Amino acid sequence: MLEPGQQPLIGLYVRLGLVVVLVVAASIVGYWLGAQSAPSEEEAAAGAVSTPAQASSTAEQPAPAPPPLYFFTSVPSASARSAVAAEISMASSAGIHQYAVSVPLPWDGDMNAFLEPLNFVVGADASAQLLVHVKLDPPTSWLEAHPESSVAGPGGTTAVSLASEAWRNEAGTALGALVSAVNTSLGSERVHGFIIGCLDGGLWHRGRVADASAANQAGFRRWLKARYLDDAQLQKAWGDASVRLEDAPIPDGLIPEGPAGEGCKVFLDLPSMQRWADFLEYTSETTAGTILEFTGQIKGIAGKSARVIASYGYSFELADGGAGHFALGRLLESDLDGFASPVSYVDRGLGGAGGLMGPVDSAVLYGKQWYLIDDTRTGIARDPSTGEITRPRNVRPEDIYSVQQRNFAAALSHRIGLMWSDADGEGRLHDSEMWKRFGAMSAIYSDSAGWGKEESQAADTADAEEEGLQAGEMSELAVVVDEESRFVEGCAGELNELLLTQVRDSAARAGLPVKYYLLRDVISGKAPGADLYLFLNAFKLEAEERARLRGVLEGNRATAIWMYAPGYFGDEGASVENIAQLTGIQVKAFDGPEKTGSTFVLTGKWMEKDETFGGRMTVEPLFYIEDENADMLAKFTASGKPSVATKFFEEGWGSVLCAEPSLTPKMLREILGILEVFLCYQPGAQNFYDTFFFGESFVGIHGKDSGERTLELDRPADITDLMSPEVGWQRRRVITLPLKTGDTRLLKIRQ
């Protein structure tokens, strides 16, 4: 098992020796398959027009690099692939020639199983550029033959333990053969890289049942030896004089999770539950280390320029601390090239926020490409009995297009990639009008971001946009999430659903530019300074980190909005004094479990006096504010104790402590109004809480409710609807927008 901080190359050189043997065979077989993969008459009729060899001979000079927009699909059996062929034709006609194609991992050495689908896509679009998506899960027969490497999953299923050396060796051999054969058959100019996945649909998501397999037991002990070095240190950390490194057990039962306050606290009791904290950290470290091991293998064969993408880093989305997704910081500093995540599964429908699963703007800081997977359920499908394409009668195409435009606005505003997904090749995107819109989005992305232009052209574009509405000219809200705090949580699942998803989505509905960062990047100064910070779960900070974070806030003269228990865990364990030291606001803890849910105590612009917010759940610990120098904004409904308060300091920074673990869009707008932050929406007779997206000279709006709303800019500008260029406003600061629920408008702003 990998030790913390080491490059994950254990076992790699042994496997590379095996792969070298396969390269020659793969070259011969790849060449043969390339020659034999010309489409059948049925395939040609369905849209396959040339072989890879023909494509290479007729290809024109390389065009400027297109924006990071892809069609994500797989190629089913020959009798069912007409829908995919038609989709590829539509994509090509729309100017989309980048494809992420799922192929099976060749456990049995069948090269045709993974090369043939790729050749089919190239045959259907001679200009195709590929990312190869491969899942590393072993077949059921392998799991049955390796019970020591198998983990019980939901519904009686089994999955592989990521600690299994046997699995990593065999999966590595198969992956090496795949990479070699792909390079030989299609070439690096055609195949730009690989997306690697495993577990839970390829998302690297561990189940809630702790992996107690023999393989993971051995891996955990190796990790503990690297962490604690000797028995004495382990015994001190765990508060257990009987435990030893050679036989330390994985904690029994489920990873701590459940309704807080009903015999289960939000945080682990340390040191008595330090073994759980270690196991949670080990789980994420092992997941990230496994990804890095396969990344190193791919780059060792295909070269450093080969991109490797992993479906990882879902810091906002996954409520359970044992998910394994909380070592993103380690991957950001590695050779891994990027990440992929679906649109949030929380509030993703028509009118929904469609949030981002991870801190995508931190990835950008490290030069990593994040891809948003748009797997919107369109209802369009191929009827397997007739081969006809059907679509549901109760779903309007315009509603589907609007959700897709919202997801595009999210990608554009954060300069990340986007993949339109028909992952199973069932015809989900079989709609020519839809692909016309995708083509328009590609042109918008290129124009807005200067993508693919020469350096001088890009500079001219930037100069032309300088006078437009830039995100930097409005106050920017940095939404900050922490990874290490996840390792001291016990029964925090319900709480995390509020803190990490609801508050994330409230920020998107506030009406100002929002960025998403890891806490470590804010503390280190890697993240650019902001006027406003929203710390969702900054629960675990050592004294030095608290001081550095206070320095960031003072240096930027910023205001911090703190959620629930900021800084509660420090060098010497948990203490309410740590919260006061970090936030500058004095707090106390309730004596036992207490009800959440708060009441607004002022008469505001967005909320009425005595209006309530926050979920009513029992939490332990729960904190209240007791600071005569702080201004109370809300109180806990059940106890009457202050739950939200503000305080400003001579050093020039401000603090807003929200001990209530919930923040609705209304309440967040009230806080921002008190801070005199300019928002694109001002209060009116009817208030709307639409989802906003801000980019360079660009504003996107996804309507939550039907009605006529007023959008206000910080200064007069020319405004054009990017998807309907005939619609626009000249020299306007305030415009009226009639929107129905789910409507999406993409507005270009020019001075």
Structural account:
The protein folds into three domains: 12-209 and 280-452, Glycosidases (TIM Barrel); 471-674, Rossmann fold (3-Layer(aba) Sandwich), CATH 3.40.50; 691-750, Immunoglobulin-like. Helix content is 34%, strand content 21%. The strands form eight sheets. It has a nine-stranded mixed beta sheet. The chain has an eight-stranded parallel barrel with strand order 1-2-3-6-7-8-9-12, surrounded by four helices. With 751 residues, it is α/β, with parallel strands linked by helices. The protein contains 20 helices and 32 strands.
Main traits of this protein?
TIM Barrel; 32 strands; 8-stranded parallel barrel; alpha/beta; Immunoglobulin-like; 751 residues; 9-stranded mixed beta sheet; Rossmann fold; 20 helices
- Order of strands in the sheet with most strands: 14-13-15-16-27-26-25-21-22
Provide the β-strand percentage band.
15-25%
Query: How many discrete domains?
Result: 3
Alpha-beta classification:
alpha/beta
Shape: globular
Residues in helices, as a percent range: 25-40%
Number of strands: 32
Top-tier CATH class of the largest domain? Alpha Beta
Mean pLDDT: 87
Which helices and strands appear, and what pairs or packs with what?
Blueprint: H1 12-36, H2 41-45, H3 52-58, E1 69-74, H4 82-93, E2 98-103, H5 111-124, E3 129-135, H6 140-145, E4 150-152, E5 158-160, H7 165-185, E6 191-197, H8 214-228, H9 231-238, H10 274-302, E7 307-310, H11 328-332, E8 338-342, H12 360-365, E9 369-374, E10 381-382, E11 389-390, H13 397-414, E12 417-422, H14 432-449, H15 455-465, E13 477-481, H16 493-508, E14 514-518, H17 519-524, E15 532-535, H18 543-556, E16 559-563, E17 569-570, E18 573-574, H19 576-583, E19 587-589, E20 594-595, E21 598-600, E22 612-613, E23 618-619, E24 623-625, E25 631-636, E26 642-648, E27 654-658, H20 665-674, E28 691-695, E29 698-702, E30 707-721, E31 728-739, E32 744-750
Parallel strand pairs: 1-2, 1-12, 2-3, 3-6, 6-7, 7-8, 8-9, 9-12, 13-14, 13-15, 15-16, 16-27
Antiparallel strand pairs: 4-5, 10-11, 17-18, 19-24, 20-23, 21-22, 21-25, 25-26, 26-27, 28-29, 29-32, 30-31, 30-32
